[in-house]
Amino acid sequence: MSHAEGSYYLPELSHWPLVGSIGLFLATGGFAYALIYGIDGALGNMTVSYIGLAIVIFMLFGWFGTVIKESMAGKYNSQVDTSFRMGMMWFILSEVMFFAAFFGALYYMRNFSVPWLGGAGNNAMTNAILHEGFQAVWPTNGPANVGGDYKVMPATGLPLWNTIILLTSGVTLTWAHHALKAGKNSQLVLGLFLTVVLGVVFLSFQVYEYGHAYNDLNLKLTTGAYGTTFFMLTGFHGFHVFVGATMLIVMLVRAMKGHFTAEHHFAFEAAAWYWHFVDVVWLGLFIFVYWLI
Amino acid sequence: MSDHPTGIKRWLFTTNHKDIGTMYLWFAFTMLFIGGAMAMVIRAELFQPGMQVVNPNFFNMMTTLHGLIMVFGAIMPAMVGFANWQVPLMIGAPDMALPRMNNWSFWILPFAAIMLVAPMFIGGDFMAGQGPAFGWTFYEPLSGQYDKLAFFIFAVHLLGFSSIMGSINIIATILNMRAPGMTLMKMPLFVWTWLITAFLLIAVMPVLAGVVTMMLTDKHFGTSFFDAAGGGDPVLFQHVFWFFGHPEVYIMILPAFGIVSQIIPTFARKPLFGYASMVYATAAIAFLSFIVWAHHMFTVGMPAAGELYFMYATVMIAVPTAVKVFNWVATMWKGSMTFEVPMLWSIAFVFLFTIGGFTGLMLGVVPVDFQYHDTYFVVAHFHYVLVTGSLFAIIAGVYYWLPKWTGHMFDIRLSKIHFWVSAISVNILFFPQHFLGLAGMPRRIPDYALQFTEFNQISSIGAFIFGGTQLLFLYIIIKCIKGGDKVSDEVWEDAKGLEWEVPSPAPYHTHATPPTVK
Ligand code: HEM
Ligand SMILES: [Cu+2]
């Protein structure tokens, strides 16, 4: 149906949600299948999962493409804009809670489970009988020395650089935002470009750091509590940086095409919020995973 | 009115809140019967001591899938179905705020359900029980032993994804789409309870996603979250799970509170007593639900300070809960009450939910819980709050709004039979379980000592009657959709609220131009 100008935009039928559901189903189901029955089966068991992933990516292009087209056609009034903003904000809150679960696990291990294994509280006998000689110090790979001897990843060096890089990227992004509001498109493009570059540098450093950890420090995902929390937290964060950087690249392309106006640029702001969120998570990581050891 | 799409595409690709609400409700109803069939298997096995019908692993699989399907497949989607149908109608919005995402939230669900139950049928002998069999709470390290765990984990991820998107949509709708004049404190209580529920969902579903992700990496990628050898702890699983799990039980009951708070004023012909206190009580319950989770873990070996703190925090929830119960009673006090079918279910809700609330209080007391934990007493508790609480409210809501949705009155005689048989049999089913639990019968065990036989038989008989009666519900609904006496726009005498101002049946698009409130 078509609505009078200014009323809330109600979209027509859309096949993208169903496509997305099928994609997710194949991607996750295929992955589960591969995990259970072996990743390197004769035909490559991940095939189904990759097909699913491709469908999801196809869906994202199609769906967001539709939304961008509708937005450029001026179908969205300010109320629709508010709905989008709320959607993004609450989505970010859900992401915060996802990280909270992993930070919570880190907190629990450092303050409860590891000290208890070391005999704290009323666990002296547990320690004496089951884990004799185990000293509760963080970082640790547990009483069984899971994953073998390892070295700790120092906070100075690359992690510190990465902190500076991400913080700087927050600044360049804010600069781009101000430029956008002032209607200076070339500054906007430059600011976005710098932010993306910084994001990519961050990710490359992270990859390098992982290589260093695996090859030189014998610090792996399988290195007990320390390796588990280190790689799961930094890994999920890195993935979010990747997603955020992808969003920013899309924004960069759109900015170059002149999609944004000083009044109408929700997509840019959503990506910016996401980037700042990723930034803040990193600060938490830097403090609790790298620094306070 | 044929300005709307037809055929299969209408349902697959729809962006209409009423279509999506209908699909949610039918999905939930289907799941109710699948989960219900599993419950029948459980009660058949428990009819006599010894092993009769299925083997122990199959029994465990039944309890596991029954719980998961009822929680994630029946109760939650039914509540979202109500939200889809009613929230836009009640706040005067043309549709949900994000209609396409709304469709996605729904269409993930059937796929998630398939992923959840498919392992039952994959590989080997069906009767050996191939599916998940570690309880709906999937405690580590037991669940980590299951070879097809990954399917379960991704099913939970998909369910979480659906819930989060659904909740974002509901919040955006309520905060952004209200008709002019519909201030927050004028919103119908159902809308309020869903606003707060959606907030809870957004806060805790990601934590559930987190905990299953930890299980996945522990099993397949060698991490040590729940492995003491590496410095982790299986108890960590319980903490993270219940940080999700306790708010989850309120996710299932708050919208039920909302439904009942709509119905009782209508048939008592009085405005809801203490509207503002209802809102604050709901918010208080939601807040408290984040800080009581370890009352499920009293016997796990927590430090005494932890036990005490979680006990005090838990019993505090009784205060806002009691505020609600007293308000419902006070709403009925001196009202011109009539006992239409939705009202019958709502009054039963108030009575029976309160019983469940009391047993909850008992369980919240640490020394007592040491005896009750993991017995049938807990099973009785949560079935009183979930079946005679959430499910009864859902049924009440269906009877209350079905005439608005279909334009027809349902068969009143049959629905009264449905009510009375259900209300009596549900007590035959669950009340004896209190005694069983107090006498020490453990939950999740397919066999039991001889002295528990009578109460188990009574319970099973109640179960078969209760289960069978729900087929009558299905018949009543289908009959009502097909035809019946035409109802007025108002449906119920003097019913208040925007939903009663639109025609019956509610047309495909409502409130295209927002109404003005007061
Ligand atoms: C008055 C408020 C309530 C209190 C104080 C309370 C307290 C408790 C406690 C202490 C337990 C743990 C018992 C044990 O395992 O030993 C428990 C279990 C449970 N409660 Fe409640 N409860 C309340 C209301 C509710 C409501 C409203 C619901 C759902 C609608 C609910 C659903 C459950 C469920 C599902 C379990 C069992 C979880 C399992 O499988 O172990 N409770 N409750
Ligand atoms: Cu609880």
Give an overview of the whole structure.
The complex is a heterodimer of chains A (293) and B (518). Chain A is built from 8 helices and no strands. Chain A is 72% helix and 0% strand. Chain A has helices spanning 16-37, 47-72, 78-117, 124-130, 158-181, 185-217, 224-256, 266-291. The model of chain A is unreliable at 1-5 (pLDDT under 50). In chain A, helix 3 runs antiparallel to helix 7 (224-256) and helix 3 packs parallel to helix 8 (266-291). Chain A folds into 2 domains: 9-76, Helix Hairpins; 77-109 and 137-291, Four Helix Bundle (Hemerythrin (Met), subunit A). The N and C termini of chain A lie far apart (61 Å). Chain B has 3 domains: 14-182, no CATH class; 188-268 and 270-335; 336-509, Cytochrome C Oxidase, Chain A. In chain B, helix 3 runs parallel beside helix 5 (149-176) and helix 10 (318-332) packs antiparallel against helix 11. The model of chain B has no long low-confidence stretch (mean pLDDT 95). At the A-B interface, helix 1, helix 3 and helix 7 of A face helix 1, helix 4, helix 5, helix 6 and helix 7 of B. The structure holds protoporphyrin IX containing FE and copper (II) ion.
